[in-house]
Amino acid sequence: MSKEKTYVDDIDRSMYDFRYDERDAYKVDEGLTPAIVEKISKEKKDPAWMRDFRLSCLETYEKTAFPQWGPSIDGLDMNNIVTYIRPKDNHMVKDWKQVPADIKDTFEKLGIPQAERESLAGVGAQYDSELVYHNVREEVAAQGVIYTDLESALHGPYAQMIRDHFMKLVPATDHKFAALHGAVWSGGSFVYVPPGVSVEIPLQSYFRLNAAGAGQFEHTLIIVDEGAYLHFIEGCSAPKYNVANLHAGCVELFVGKNATLRYSTIENWSKNMYNLNTKRARVEEGGKIEWISGSFGSHVSYLYPSSFLVGEGARSEFTSVTFAGRGQNLDTGCKVVHNAPNTSSYVNTRSISKSGGISTFRSSVNVTPKAKGAKASVSCASLMLDDISRSDTIPAMDIRTADADIGHEAKIGRISDETVFYLMSRGMSEEDARALIVSGFADNVGKELPLEYAVEMNNLIRLEMKGAIG
Questions:
Q1: Inter-axis angle of helices 34-43 and 176-184, to 10 degrees?
Q2: CA-to-CA distance for 435 and 441, rounded, in angstroms?
Q3: pTM of the full predicted structure?
């Protein structure tokens, strides 16, 4: 089948659905074999321990069953997925002018260089399996902050730090797609913030999957040392094809004593994407992790960012909005493990479904006997825009101490006809009125994002609302 025939036009997402031919691309064969894994390792110039680690992950993958608890992923056939693809003769640059023209045009259309110039301390841009651009402001680098691609870090002065932390929070035995990630991972970012350093403006990585029938497996590793602060933003998008694409990235976050890390994500994968991503944070004494998440794309998602509160007084906040439209089954949520005294967590989520979309929220709160004085609150609200969509809430709580304060609430509702009528009486069209109501419902995430990303989120909501009436 030709590339022209695999592309599916979708005018409502034209900002994201443009793509370029892969005529200059280098790629491995479809499927997953030891030979393919070794080829990827050779391409990446892995140290010996990483090559051995990949092969051991492949063995784990082959022995591990597919997940059974969530939406069907029967349409995903690993025999048809290309696990590594890059532009021919690709090499990462720090000067935007040196990025190849078609790749540069892709990121220009997505607003990456403009965002970098206006509001970011550093940017990493990944195209398919490789980072093509990475840069960090001089004043941030002067603070001792390391922000680079993970593969470069494997060969530099931080190589041992990488080895000590890589897939320690998300072991290959965790689930089948964690093992897959360990075998074929490529690209991603490494961030280290030294003790006491506050990075006042955000760092960002943006992941663009251009190729049909491909997978993207970037690995993000962030270490925020004692008393430090960082806001990291992750963006993702892909054009739409009528063949399955796979995203199985991994995010590992280490938050030191009295440190704070805010991790914001706007995911706008196309609706042929299987998004099987794993994100996990470990928080030490007095530290805090803040998750801000907007999920708008993909055909199927399994996404449950997890926080392990291992030091006294450690805190976690999780704020998210999920939008499931026609043909989407988004199974999302979060997990918090309280494993130290006086830890606290707060979960506040919004789920929106329309045109037969399915949105499922899963939460898991575990409080161990060590976590005396723990406090946890889970609040989830769902909004269905029609009578053919579905929204489910599946909370799980495992409390092993009597000295804890735990709460959960869930609300499911529809858009009020009276509210729509009121806004229309003030001159709004019905479509704009409904979009405004949905934007307000999702405001818990919007108000936590930097302005330009809040604008993007509201634009995505408007795109999703096109044709939603009736």
A1: 50
A2: 10
A3: 0.85
